[in-house]
Structure formats: structure tokens, C-alpha cells
Amino acid sequence: MILETFPVGMLGCNCSILGDESTGQALVIDPGDDADKVVATLARHELSATHILHTHAHIDHIGGSAEVKRSCGCRAHLHSGDQWLYENLAMQGKMLGLAAVDAVELDEPLQEGDTFSVGALGVEVLHTPGHSPGSVSFVLEAENRQVVFAGDTLFRGGIGRTDLWGGDTGTIMKSLHGKLMALDDDAEVITGHGPPTTIGRERRSNPFLSGGASL
Question: What CATH architecture applies to the domain 2-210?
Fold first, then answer.
């Protein structure tokens, strides 16, 4: 298994590449807005992307998707709850002071329970709305590891903002307690920004989950 996570773009979105050595195929999760870096990382590992998976459609996570899709000839997927955000990338960029980005036609929308596989590796989709209506997480179980790509739903010591487009505090808390906190304590969490963590660490010490902080 090849799993590499690296920051891309001005806002440091964490992009992850999950690859299977036996087939040379890969999934790209949240290519952000640095397509060249994503494509170069795939090439370094001698991998070919089959699917781009988005945790949500805020521009820092999706801005490079059109170029990556065109370069790799792969499919790209987003939950339908965030389609309206994807259709307003220009507005998002203007509000954040970011350069305009291209959009490309997306393929089948993500749904709860969908699975995407490369070789023997696969991730399952969890719908975890709150940061945005279409926010999802991807859960990987392989090589005695459970890894969740949580996007901007859960961070080390924090949770996703709900004051951006489509955010809702009550909804994100339901996603956190009903979906992510149901995972094992030793499940590794790849966050949308910043360092990784584990479900157990956040269950024990995250002030937003223990009642010590409020949004």
C-alpha cells in the first residue's frame, strides 16, 4: 500500500494519494489547488489515478480537480449536497482572494456506503455533513489499519468551521458523535489541514467533543 499525504495550495489543504503497487492504480483525495504537485507525486510512485474523491467543495480542497482530471483521465466525485458550492467556485475564490479556477464536469455523486477500490484497497464513504451539506469522510481498512480521511469535519484538537457556506453546528456535532466517534480509538485520522490524529485522542482531549469549548 502506498499512502502519501501532503499539503497543497495557499491554505495548506491535505491531499492524500492512496495507491496499490500491484495494479499501479490510485485514488486521489482532495487535490486542492496544486495540480502539478499532485500529478508529480503520482508519477514519482508510478501510479495512475482512477478516481478523484472530494471530502467537500470548498475551493481550497477542489480548486485543482479540473486540471488533475484532465491530466490523468480519471473520474471525479463529489456529494450532491455540495454541487452548488462547486458551481460557485468563482464566487468562493473572489471572497477568499484566490485566483479563479476551472471547473470540469463531475461524475457520479458520492453517496453514503459507496466504496472505491484500487487493487485490494478500498475506501467507504461516510456522509458527515455540517462543515458543508455535502461533506463526507472516507474510511480505509487495510493492513491492520483503519484510516479515516475526515476533510474539514475533524481536526487535531478542533472541528470544522460552521460559519462558512452551508455550515451548521448541530449537524456537524451529529456527524462527529454519530459517525466518526463510532470508529475505533486507534483509527488514524487524516485531517483536511494540519497534523494527523486518532479517534481516541480526539475522544479524550478534543474540547469540542468533551464539552470544554463551543463554536
Answer: 4-Layer Sandwich (3.60)
